[in-house]
């Protein structure tokens, strides 16, 4: 089934989640990819190099770098405790990511692999600290876990370097900056100025920054090539840009999107979601773990469980569109903020349903805040319309939301968490799912 899914469609669709994180107009990564690949073609790059450029640009915001920086600024300004913990940060992130995505035992069951890392994930805040500290490398690391090569990873890692050496994190200059990063930077600025000011504004901006931010040779290539091509601009401005970009993927590489790869991609984007806020570090992984364990106890077959696990990993992908000032707010949310939080479920549906094969998964996953009594969001569905698989994700999600530390409450012991959940059985929580969860927790030694 999954081999009918094109990698370009999958990654291109998920890049919409990255647009949300960066606060860019919808479709920014896809349009930047269109621009960059056309620059690459005018440079005469071979298909292999164009393919790497294609994914380096689509995934350029995988590290959510400016977002992470904003989190740290906001949080450091607001909370001294966080600041103290921040000093404890080590450099073990790459090791942990490597472990998370270790290819060994891939066929030997997700639950076993995940259980062993659950303790690490439980220490969520420290992990988030590390994520912030290593934000320049995070996107590149996740790209590697998504099986992209070094030319793609380094393109992402060096996205914020500038031709004149004024960029970050290394202050690299000139040819020392990977070509994919130079083209990606130029392309993203062209898109931003084109969206806000039109064609001339975009071209003028490239010229203004030539030799500063941008490689002057690339600016010339753009001016003499794509910028003079009416068809280039027309497609960029059309509603068909998605299809055009999916079709633009150079055909030299055939990376089959099989079940294993789909799992890796869901894990990678789950990590992007979890690293948005210090309080959600590890959340998607834990929800996926518990949802899978509950599903097993409830007798779902292996392939359905695997499918569901992806839905659990991605259930909060829409949170990338919610500001951290709201997600990390320690106090009560005002009505407007509450509406913004609820919108994450809508974003999850929008992002996942862009992928043809994910339509059912989008519905199941995006309904995780619906309640059996009809008082949930975003649609206010009631029991008969809420699928078993959704109820499983909801149970795992509520457990982790109460059990783990949040801005508005400390960590809650497991027995107390279950007491709170029992009060919501029938109204929000399915009794069979909760019973299965209790069995899981007992087996894992978290409950007597
Ligand atoms: Fe949620
Ligand atoms: Fe959640």
Salient structural properties:
2 domains, single chain, 62% helix, 448 residues, Hypothetical protein af1432, mainly alpha, binds fe (ii) ion
**CATH architecture of the largest domain, please?**
Orthogonal Bundle
Beta-strand level of the residues, as a percent range? under 5%
Given the structure, what is the number of helices? 24
Spatial separation of the terminal alpha carbons: 42 Å
CA-atom Rg in angstroms: 22 Å
CATH fold label of the largest domain: Hypothetical protein af1432
The computed structural class is: mainly alpha
Rounded mean pLDDT is: 83
Uncertain ranges? 65-109
The biggest beta sheet reads:
none
Description:
This protein is mainly α. It folds into two domains: 2-59 and 148-248, Hypothetical protein af1432 (Orthogonal Bundle), CATH 1.10.3210.10; 258-443, Hypothetical protein af1432 (Orthogonal Bundle), CATH 1.10.3210.10. Helix content is 62%, strand content 0%. It contains 24 helices and no strands. The chain is elongated. One fe (ii) ion is lined by residues 316, 344, 368-369.
């Amino acid at each position: 089934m999954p081999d009918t899914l094109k990698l370009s469609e999958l990654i291109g669709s998920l890049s919409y989640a990255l647009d949300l994180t960066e606060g860019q107009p919808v479709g920014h990564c896809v349009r930047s990819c269109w621009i960059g690949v056309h620059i690459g073609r005018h440079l005469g790059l071979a298909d292999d190099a164009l393919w790497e450029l294609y994914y380096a640009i689509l995934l350029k915001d995988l590290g959510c770098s400016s977002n992470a920086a904003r989190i740290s600024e906001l949080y450091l300004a607001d909370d001294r405790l966080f600041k103290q913990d921040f000093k404890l940060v080590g450099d073990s992130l790459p090791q942990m990511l490597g472990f998370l995505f270790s290819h060994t035992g891939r066929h030997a069951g997700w639950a076993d692999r995940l259980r062993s890392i659950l303790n690490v994930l439980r220490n969520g805040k420290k992990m988030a600290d590390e994520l912030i500290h290593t934000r320049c490398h995070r996107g590149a690391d996740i790209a590697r876990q998504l099986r992209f090569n070094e030319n793609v990873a380094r393109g992402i890692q060096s996205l914020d370097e500038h031709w004149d050496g004024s960029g970050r994190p290394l202050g690299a200059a000139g040819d020392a900056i990977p070509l994919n990063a130079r083209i990606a930077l130029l392309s993203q600025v062209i898109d931003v100025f084109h969206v806000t000011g039109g064609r001339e504004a975009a071209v003028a901006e490239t010229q203004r920054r030539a030799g500063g931010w941008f490689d002057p040779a690339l600016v010339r290539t753009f001016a003499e090539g794509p910028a003079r091509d009416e068809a280039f601009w027309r497609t960029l401005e059309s509603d068909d840009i998605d299809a055009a970009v999916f079709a633009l993927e150079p055909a030299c590489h055939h990376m089959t999107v099989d079940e294993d790869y789909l799992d890796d991609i869901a894990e990678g984007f789950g990590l992007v979601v979890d690293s948005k806020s210090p309080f959600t570090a590890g959340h998607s992984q834990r929800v996926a773990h518990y949802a899978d364990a509950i599903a097993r106890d409830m007798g779902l077959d292996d392939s359905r469980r695997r499918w569901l696990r992806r839905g659990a990993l991605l259930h909060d992908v829409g949170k990338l569109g919610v500001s951290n000032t709201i997600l990390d707010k320690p106090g009560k949310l005002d009505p407007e903020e509450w509406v913004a939080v609820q919108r994450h479920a809508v974003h999850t549906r929008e992002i996942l349903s862009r992928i043809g094969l994910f339509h059912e998964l989008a519905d199941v996953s995006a309904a995780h805040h619906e309640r059996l009594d009809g008082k949930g969001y975003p649609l206010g569905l009631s029991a008969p319309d809420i699928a078993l698989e959704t109820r499983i994700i909801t149970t795992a999600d509520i457990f982790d939301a109460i059990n783990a530390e949040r801005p508005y409450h400390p960590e809650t012991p497991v027995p107390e968490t279950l007491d709170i959940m029992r009060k919501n059985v029938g109204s929000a929580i399915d009794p069979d799912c909760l019973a299965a969860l209790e069995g899981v927790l007992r087996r894992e030694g978290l409950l007597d």
